[in-house]
Design a protein that fits this description.
Layout lengths: L3 E9 L9 H12 L5 E4 L1 H9 L3 H7 L3 E4 L10 H4 L5 H23 L6 E2 L8 H8 L4 E3 L8 E3 L2 E4 L3 E2 L9 H14 L4 E7 L1 H5 L4 H6 L18 H19 L4 E4 L1 H7 L7 E3 H11 L6 E3 L2 E3 L1 H14 L9 E3 L18 E3 H18 L6 E3 L2 E3 L1 H18 L5 E3 L9 H4 L2 H8 L12 H9 L5 E2 L15
Length: 475
């Protein structure tokens, strides 16, 4: 039987209400008593205020556990989605680095480690964030538009919690919590990840600190920030004891291994090199002639963008010269960063045009490390979906006949990968804007568009204890 990994996510974010400091110690004591490590996802401003309040005891206790990062200012406007609302890709990536860098560097100095993950604050989604944080050395992104089974997106390991622990729980709620965990556990019995999130501040307060101060676009002056209303000590103590009982219940399950987000990144890490043999590429190409989708082949996952890069390299560097390589490495590649133009391509495309548009695409990819939104040549203008189809069909034909085809029949694969429909991603993106912190009616068509384009980078994350089969983890 494979391990069922369980990670505990503690979002330490309330930097306004002093009473929320002590509950971190209470939770750490519970974890320590049960010999469990948690992942504490800390807002930069929370650390600044812990230092101002002289809470070195809290900071030192946190060092015994995994440190993750939950943005610099969390709900202070402009939040991430607001400052990226109208940004183009490169400008957005640089803006994330500028605004989130100070909090990240603070956590590194205070805790002496690089944070293990970035946790999305509320509904503040944008695709530039996981990519920028990856470039800043943070390997995982938690929450947002993802599912509870990890995937790679923009080069970052991405997943969300499978369930939350209700911080106002009483002992009357314990049986329902146990049943909910068992339901998820039984669905993962063949291996997988169960992340469980909670907000330490909400053990102590009646309402969220940010809803009290920053809801619907409000940004009060620093001196007018209001602490959240507090729960009674009796209720706080009962909820903490329910959490202790729930944690003890989880630990009784067979095959459970409690992990931190740092360990999750190791469990789902890629091999040092992903490389496919020529026969594997032939198999991949046959699948890609009819589908713009990620693939897993012999336990190796590959995104549509990586697949397209692999195909044009095989055609331009090898097959057109009648050279058959033993294998080719897979390189991380971004999706297009602008919307594809309208396709203009003959129903039948000849070999010379196939070779030329493949060469144009390869030069673009080699220069920009992303797939082109449009490739144009004389009377041909095609987006990445058609380019993937043409390259896949050329390679598939070669695998059967030992030569490239004189002509290829083109039907037109979509420019957006299948996962967009399979996950109903447009709905998921727009559900992010329901966060109470956003101004009324907030939305961003630019963030939506860039998200869909970067699904070209999406692929399943394969755990180290995977058996190497074609299982796609129900995603």
């Amino acid at each position: 039987m494979r391990n069922v990994y369980v990670a505990f996510q503690f979002d330490a974010e309330d930097f306004i209400t002093p009473e929320t400091d002590d509950v971190l110690l209470e939770l750490i004591n519970i974890l320590d008593d049960l010999d469990v490590k948690g992942s504490f996802c800390i807002v930069g401003e929370k650390v600044r205020n812990l230092k101002k309040r002289g809470r070195t005891d809290v900071l030192e206790s946190l060092k015994r556990h995994d440190i993750a990062y939950q943005s610099n200012l969390h709900s202070v406007h402009p939040v991430i989605s607001e400052y990226l609302k109208d940004k183009e890709w490169e400008e957005g990536v640089e803006e994330v680095k500028k605004r989130e860098g100070p909090g990240l560097e603070l956590l590194k100095r205070v805790f002496g480690v690089n944070p293990s993950a970035f946790i999305q604050p509320g509904g503040s989604w944008a695709p530039e964030t996981p990519y920028a944080l990856r470039e800043m050395g943070v390997p995982a992104y938690v929450d947002g538009i993802f599912q509870d089974s990890p995937v790679w997106f923009c080069g970052s390991l991405c997943f969300k919690a499978a369930m939350g622990f209700p911080e106002h729980s009483s002992f009357a709620d314990l049986d329902a919590l146990k049943s909910r965990f068992d339901e998820i556990y039984n669905s993962k019995i063949n291996g997988g990840l169960i992340a469980i999130y909670m907000h330490p501040c909400m053990f102590v307060t009646e309402k969220f600190w940010d809803a009290v101060n920053f809801s619907y676009g409000r940004n009060p002056f620093q001196g007018r920030l209001m602490p959240a209303p507090l729960r009674s000590k009796e209720k706080i103590e009962e909820s903490l004891q329910v959490f202790r009982a729930f944690l003890s219940f989880i630990l009784e399950h067979p095959n459970i291994k409690v992990v931190t987000f740092r360990e999750v990144a190791e469990i789902y890490s890629d091999p040092k090199e992903r490389r496919l043999s020529l026969d594997q590429i032939f198999t991949l190409a046959k699948r890609a002639t009819e589908r713009n989708d990620w693939q897993i082949i012999d336990g190796i996952s590959i995104s549509p963008a990586e697949m397209l890069r692999l195909f044009v390299e095989l055609i331009t560097n090898h097959l057109q010269r009648e050279v058959e390589p033993k294998s080719i490495p897979i390189y991380f590649t971004l999706g297009p960063t602008s919307k594809p133009s309208e396709t203009r391509i003959p129903r039948n495309i000849n070999l010379d045009d196939v070779l030329e548009i493949s060469c144009i695409a390869k030069k673009f990819i080699d220069t920009h490390l992303e797939i082109p939104s449009t490739v144009a040549k004389d009377n041909i203008k095609c987006g990445p979906g058609v380019l993937l189809e043409v390259a896949a069909k050329a390679i598939s034909y070669y695998s059967e006949h030992g030569s490239l085809p004189e002509r290829i029949r083109v039907y037109g694969l979509p420019d957006i990968p299948e996962v967009v429909q399979r996950w109903d991603l447009i709905k998921r993106i727009n559900e992010q804007w329901r966060w109470v912190i956003f101004p009324y009616g907030f939305k961003s068509k630019r963030i939506e568009e860039l998200t869909l384009l970067q699904t070209w980078t999406m692929r399943p994350a394969v755990s180290v204890d995977n058996d190497g089969g074609e299982r796609e983890q129900d995603i």
